[in-house]
Task: inverse folding
């Protein structure tokens, strides 16, 4: 409802030919979430579990105009799982990213709450993991207004959270510092990561930076992808390459970093240890897929082919928001 700016969240299911599966959900291929207790619902991210169910995460605005997290699970038939999350208590804030923990079943989420980075851990059944943080929830106060925008699980059960710290918007101009945080499996800050658990994305030439995706290699090294810009709204995409302990690999790119004009999307996929695929937007507003190969430090943009009669309303700065890779590598 654009006149009231009230958003109704849904999940759509398509077959392999791109047609809606009419028997899915509660409205001709869509599952539309009940908005009885919320004025507006926004879904930011999703993850598929081992039983092929879909867990979606985001935030909602209640009838009293309070913002709280939104987490729901959908069966493959398009039926909402009852009592998920279990024994739900209201968490005021927003979820921006979700992934599976290293054990393959638990769920890890990040976002923001009361200007702090929010990290939570749930079992696959939707119960908060009580021995993580404070009864399943962790709040990180780094510097000023902080937001968690990406999350990834390392092989030793530790967690990486990327985002932005000291975030401000003044006269429509953003300022803030990109950040990656190392967290132990029990929800404590890792003293073996970065400096006291924090690695800042330093760049003297930009006023704003945020980490929108983290992808981990088999050896534990990881890529941090994101966007940075200046107050005059010049935007660029950056890729940084780190050791498992948050040390920038200076042999990668130019002193550990590669950047080029554009705005990165919220998600990426690691095709193999040397090739990244991610979505974004070019400086002239075109929706692009990007392919990056580490061996030659080369980034190749690909313009998606949009069928005639089908249009996309790209949401800046996240034009292409999710990419999946099948077994054939497509």
Result:
């Amino acid at each position: 409802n654009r006149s009231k700016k009230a958003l109704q969240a849904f999940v759509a299911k398509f077959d392999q030919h791109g047609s809606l599966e009419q028997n899915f959900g509660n409205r001709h291929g869509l599952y539309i979430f009940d908005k009885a207790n919320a004025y507006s619902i926004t879904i930011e991210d999703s993850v598929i579990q081992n039983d092929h169910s879909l867990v979606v995460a985001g935030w909602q605005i209640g009838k009293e105009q309070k913002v709280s997290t939104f987490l729901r699970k959908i069966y493959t038939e398009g039926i909402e799982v009852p009592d998920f999350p279990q024994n739900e208590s209201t968490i005021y804030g927003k979820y921006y990213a979700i992934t599976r923990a290293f054990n393959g079943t638990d769920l890890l989420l990040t976002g923001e709450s009361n200007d702090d980075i929010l990290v939570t851990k749930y079992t696959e059944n939707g119960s908060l993991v009580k021995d993580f943080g404070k009864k399943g929830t962790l709040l990180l106060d780094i510097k000023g207004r902080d937001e968690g925008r990406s999350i990834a699980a390392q092989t030793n059960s530790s967690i990486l959270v990327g985002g932005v710290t000291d975030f401000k918007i003044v006269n429509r101009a953003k300022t803030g510092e990109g950040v990656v945080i190392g967290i132990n499996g029990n929800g404590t800050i890792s003293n073996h990561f970065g400096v006291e658990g924090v690695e800042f994305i330093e760049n003297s030439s930009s006023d704003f930076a945020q980490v929108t995706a983290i992808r981990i290699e088999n050896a534990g090294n990881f890529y941090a992808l994101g966007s940075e810009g200046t107050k005059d709204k010049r935007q660029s995409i950056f890729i940084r390459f780190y050791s498992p302990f948050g040390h920038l690999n200076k042999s990668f790119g130019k002193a550990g970093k590669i950047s080029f004009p554009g705005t990165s999307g919220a998600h990426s996929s690691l095709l193999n240890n040397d090739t990244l695929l991610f979505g974004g937007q070019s400086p002239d507003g075109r929706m692009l897929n990007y392919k990056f190969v580490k061996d030659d430090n080369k980034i190749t943009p690909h313009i998606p082919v949009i069928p005639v009669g089908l249009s996309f309303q790209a949401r800046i700065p996240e034009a292409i928001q999710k990419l999946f890779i099948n077994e054939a590598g497509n």
